[in-house]
């Protein structure tokens, strides 16, 4: 399931995720599942027809990601919860583990989205031009976004979302969800 919160120049995308890394590192074995939240750049495209035509809107490349993940064998542990403070194009930088995410993942999301200029600066996009009032709009919407992430996580834990592909639990590289 995918939820998109669009603003003027950025969007926040939230969805469920089941993931099995094809190159597992020691201590990171086994499938993980949960909720992924990304801050992405948003671009309005040219009208494809008349002034009455619908405007294409591109939800573009990610600039920051929070993965509220846990191993399937340890529900409720938040043992794989991390974020990616920077991206190189479409590729995430290293996982960054923060105890605040483990202690209060939803609060961490509100905190990060509440400081959009700081988040962009830490992501290496200090020069990204936000629309007037956009940072305040994102901050005001952050509790709603975090609530959606929390409700999706509840549905993951209930077994409704982020399920492994049928018959493919052991297949390395399995990725189900929106990304």
List the helices and strands and how they pair.
Elements: E1 2-6, E2 10-19, E3 32-44, E4 57-71, E5 82-84, E6 87-88, E7 91-92, H1 99-103, H2 105-113, H3 116-122, H4 134-157, E8 175-177
Antiparallel strand pairs: 1-2, 2-3, 2-8, 3-4, 4-5, 6-7
Helix pairs in contact: 2-4
Protein model, in words:
The chain has helices at residues 99-103, 105-113, 116-122, 134-157, and strands spanning 2-6, 10-19, 32-44, 57-71, 82-84, 87-88, 91-92, 175-177. With 179 residues, it is an alpha+beta fold. It has one domain. The strands form two sheets. Strands 1, 2, 3, 4, 5 and 8 form a six-stranded antiparallel sheet that branches. Strands 6-7 form a two-stranded antiparallel ribbon. Strand 6 (87-88) and strand 7 (91-92) form a beta hairpin. Mean pLDDT is 88; it is low at 169-174.
Brief description of this entry?
The protein is of the alpha+beta class and 179 residues long.
Descriptive tags:
single chain; 30% strand; alpha+beta; two-stranded antiparallel ribbon; globular; 8 strands
Number of strands: 8
Helix content: 25-40%
Class from helix and strand fractions: alpha+beta
What's the helix-strand series? EEEEEEEHHHHE
């Amino acid at each position: 399931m995918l939820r998109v919160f669009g603003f003027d120049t950025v969007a926040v995308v939230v969805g469920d995720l089941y993931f099995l890394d094809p190159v597992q590192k020691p201590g990171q074995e086994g499938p993980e599942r949960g909720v992924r939240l990304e801050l992405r750049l948003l671009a309005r495209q040219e009208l494809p027809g008349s002034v009455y035509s619908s405007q294409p809107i591109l939800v573009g490349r990610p600039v920051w990601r929070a993965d509220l993940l846990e191993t399937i064998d340890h529900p409720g542990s938040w043992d794989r919860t991390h974020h990616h403070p920077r991206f190189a194009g479409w590729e995430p930088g290293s996982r960054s583990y923060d105890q605040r995410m483990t202690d209060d993942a939803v609060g961490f999301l509100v905190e990060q989205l509440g400081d959009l200029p700081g988040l962009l600066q830490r992501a290496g996009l200090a020069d990204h031009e936000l629309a007037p009032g956009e940072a305040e709009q994102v901050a005001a919407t952050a509790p709603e976004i975090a609530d959606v992430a929390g409700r999706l996580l509840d549905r993951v834990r209930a077994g409704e979302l982020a399920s492994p592909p049928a018959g493919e639990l052991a297949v390395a590289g399995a990725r189900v969800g929106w990304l």
